[in-house]
Amino acid sequence: MLETVEPDNEALNACRELKQHGYLIALDDFVLRPDYEPLISVADIIKVDFLQVKGEERKKVSQSLARSKVRLLAEKVETMEDFREAVQLGYTYLQGFFFNKPEIVSGREVPSHKLAYLRLIQELNQPELDFSAVEAILKSDLSLSLKLLRYINSAAIGLR
């Protein structure tokens, strides 16, 4: 549940209903506020943004929730110090760039066999089927030709 959701009766009832259906409730970007007490009672996981919530506030959150059944998730853990502090404070789950930074992959070519599949699907969906075009597509991709031969020779087709 996003931090922008007001903890009113409608939100609480929706959370309770979801929990009855087996869902876990997570409160995102949590900060200690008196009006959040009812939401804490239905929450399974409370996410604390380590970039926004600093030192003493992190400790207050973990201490105030220590006796509850809720599990704490430290998000945006980016340094070894953040990691150690989260573990020391009893956070159950941790996520962030400290564990692995995303790699930007620039431009990726569609593999030829996938392109052949797309071309075949496009050709098969034409109002008038052009057998020579289908044949050309099948000839252009060896793996597609092999799959077609295996299918035709399978027991499901029943050809001799």
Keywords:
elongated; alpha/beta; single chain; 7 helices; 160 residues
Describe the structure.
By secondary structure, this protein is α/β, with parallel strands linked by helices. Helices cover 45% and strands 9% of the residues. The protein is built from seven helices and four strands; from the N terminus they run αβαβαβαβααα. It has a four-stranded parallel beta sheet with strand order 1-2-3-4, covered by helices on one side. α4 (80-89) links the parallel β3 and β4. α5 (112-124) runs antiparallel to α6 (131-140). The mean pLDDT is 86.
Short description:
Helices cover 45% and strands 9% of the residues. The protein is α/β, with parallel strands linked by helices and 160 residues long.
Q: Which sequence of SSEs, written as H and E, runs from N to C?
A: HEHEHEHEHHH
Mean pLDDT value: 86
Provide the gyration radius in Å.
27 Å
Largest sheet: 4 strands, parallel
The portion of residues assigned to helices is 40-55%
Measured distance between first and last alpha carbons: 60 Å
What percentage of the residues does DSSP assign to strands (E)?
5-15%
Return residue spans where pLDDT drops below 50 for at least 5 consecutive residues.
none
Order of adjacent strands in the largest pleated sheet: 1-2-3-4
What's the number of extended β-strand segments? 4
The 3D shape can be described as elongated
Count of helical regions:
7
Structural class: alpha/beta
